[in-house]
Amino acid sequence: MDSWVRFNAQSQAKERVIRAAQYACTLLGYTLQKGGAAAELHKTVSQLEAHMSLSRKLLRLGNSVEALEAAKRAIHLSDSVLRLCLTISHLNRAMYFACDNVLWAGKTGLVSKLDQHKWSQRSFRYYLFALILNLTRDVYELRLLIECEARYRAARSPPSPSPTLPTDHLLSHSTPDMLAWLRRQLHLLVTVLYSNPPLLLDLLKNSCDIFIPLDRLGIYRTGQGFVGACGLASSVLSILTMVHPWLKLKP
């Protein structure tokens, strides 16, 4: 099992590069269509995108095993929120990859008469659930770090008249007071994200990725151009975490 996980990690790097190229083609195809380019050129770019998508599915064969191993590790985390979010997220990823493998078999003709649309929608649903849980984890960690930074600042500086503003305080005070409180919160947010690049990159990557299944499932249509841009951006961020492992959010 460990040998397979190590082997799978090598193919993931190739899959990320092909993913970036695929979404670059998606963005390029949208630009060509809007720019009124020749139909033959647009068709060539679309075919290249389809071939890259199929190549990625081939490289993702067996990724369910890696996702299940990650779920087994996550279930032993001491933090209950992280344990819940990461375990269920990895299980959803495992189901997403399993559906993707079935879809690959249908596209290559290994499984005849496969309802590809149904399996595609099913895989994107699992993908969406996994991303929602990943974003929940990011927000949870961000909240913990902001609270830690606020306590650290409070310990270093003399007590202020109103370090925080509860709801009734916000309603009874003037707009300048609320703006000052919002500025302090925004400064805390920027400080925490600036000092924690792995969390910032993971938050950006998941925020970009979530628009892909939302569009594919018809929940929130954004168009091919936006999907291509988001997919390309998240792929570059993912490649960056592979080139510099310290940028990968742990656990």
TrEMBL record:
It is found in: Peroxisome membrane. Coiled coil: none annotated. GO terms for cellular component: peroxisomal membrane. InterPro entries: PEX11 (IPR008733). GO terms for biological process: peroxisome fission. Keywords: Membrane, Peroxisome, Peroxisome biogenesis, Transmembrane, Transmembrane helix. Signal peptide: none annotated. Its main location: membrane. The keyword Cell cycle does not apply. Pfam families: PEX11 (PF05648). The chain crosses the membrane at residues 226-247. This is Peroxisomal membrane protein 11B.
